[in-house]
Amino acid sequence: MARIDVVMPQMGESIAEGTLSKWLKKVGDEIKRDEPLFEISTDKVDAEIPSAAAGVLAEILVTEGQTVPVQTVVARLETEKGAAASGAPAGTASGGARSGGNGATVGAGGPPQKQNTAVPSAAPQRSAAPLTASSQASPSAAPSAAANSFEGRLRTKSSPLVRKIAAEHGIEISALSGSGIAGRVTKRDLEQHLQSGAPMSGVSAGHAPSFSRELPGPVPTPWPGDRVEAMSKMRALISDHMVASRRTSAHVTSFFEVDLTRVARIRSQLRAQVEAQTGQKLTFLPFIIKAVTEGLRKFPVLNASVAGTSVIYRKSINIGVAVALEWGLIVPVIRGADDLSLGGLTKALNDLAARARAKKLAPAEVQEGTFTITNPGVFGSLMGTPIINQPQVAIMGVGAIEKRPKVMTGADGEDTIAIRTCAYFSLSFDHRIVDGADADRFMAFIKQYIESYPETAA
């Protein structure tokens, strides 16, 4: 028998910690490989984490509701087959990955990672160079021994999110004492440093400090008969992110009425065929996503991000679609949406939405969206002003699709009243880089594309 460490997984490049919200097994339970072991909450996703190996849950080290850095050992499994022992440095901070006499560290949801006594690597990083000035070493600067140590590399090679915030506020990461593994500086450390009185030269796009708990004004108190409940982890994070997005982006919203009568007819003709091919219900949303991907190709500034005083024009078109859950909101991402057919979009959309509600999404499936669509119209809303999903620069809202009387001009110039299937579309955009003219041209393109929807696109 051997023991294997189960760690808090790295849930994307900008995630430094996670909250273990629920254990799905108890000590002594047998567990199969890929069987759900625990649930986590981060600022990106609520998800069930499967076991990376079969065995018996021997020890639980992190309790429900506890927030810990990524790579923290949360439990240990007893297995028949064990990997070689990992040689973590003796000086690692408490709560970091620990080594056991016969154990191997595994990231939940992935295969066991065999480790040797060489210096272990830090949490996974993207190969692309960061876009902040502080992340690039001067050619003439000779790296110090401390900077090349495990602890030094963890501190200075913190997540892209941390590096970005530090760069925009002129903070030298290596000078801070972090609370993460081996002194790794986390987003929380930076926020505490800034709140302690450090000067604030700007706000990182989409990653501002938690302002929602610092807003001025009277704090309400409960009255007799009121019920008081603490926010869930997801709700608290949504609260922080919405306020941060409002403070980060210069929000402007534009509205267009779109006639979907032609799309409704094509959908009616294709519904049986698509449902037979994919096993999924064909809704209006795949048609809208298709129009959006074409619009983003034509107007790339809507598919961009702001990095300080630079603009990143994304090559990939990854469409996030907001999914309402009973306990909050999540935005799974359809990657490479511009390469998918109508049937492919239908299948991807319905699959992601179903797994979001079942907490079965993988971390990568809520990462790297470039544009978001929210569809409050399914609840009857006519229109709205959605808040931008940082670090994107635009989000489109789709209102209720319903039949309305419209004035139509015939071929002979005569005006008639006709029944048309219509909806109000709204676009909230970041006026820092998107001008009103570009936003309205984009929306005019979406309107024209949908109202004269090409048969070839179906």
Keyphrases for this structure?
Chloramphenicol Acetyltransferase, OB fold (Dihydrolipoamide Acetyltransferase, E2P), alpha+beta, globular, 458 residues, five-stranded mixed β-sheet, 24% strand
Number of helices: 9
Going by CATH, the homologous superfamily of the domain at 251-457 would be Chloramphenicol acetyltransferase-like domain
**What coarse outline follows from CA principal-axis ratios?**
globular
* Class from helix and strand fractions: alpha+beta
> Stretches where pLDDT falls below 50 for ≥5 residues?
82-155, 198-214
Main sheet: strands, sense, barrel: 7 strands, mixed
Helical residue percent band = 10-25%
CATH architecture of the domain at 251-457: 2-Layer Sandwich
Termini Cα gap: 57 Å
Strand content: 15-25%
Radius of gyration: 25 Å
Provide a descriptive summary of the structure in words:
The chain has 458 residues and is α+β, with helices and mostly antiparallel strands. The protein has helices spanning 145-148, 150-156, 160-168, 187-195, 233-248, 261-278, 285-298, 342-357, 436-451; strands at 2-7, 17-23, 30-31, 36-41, 46-50, 55-60, 66-69, 73-79, 104-107, 251-259, 304-307, 310-313, 319-321, 323-325, 328-330, 333-334, 371-374, 394-398, 402-409, 415-430. The strands form five sheets. Strands 10, 13, 16, 17, 18, 19 and 20 form a seven-stranded mixed β-sheet that branches. A five-stranded mixed β-sheet has the order 3-6-8-1-9, with no helix packed on it. Helix 6 (261-278) crosses helix 8 (342-357), helix 7 (285-298) packs across helix 8 (342-357) and helix 7 (285-298) packs across helix 9. The longest helix is centred in the middle third of the chain and has 18 residues, at 261-278.
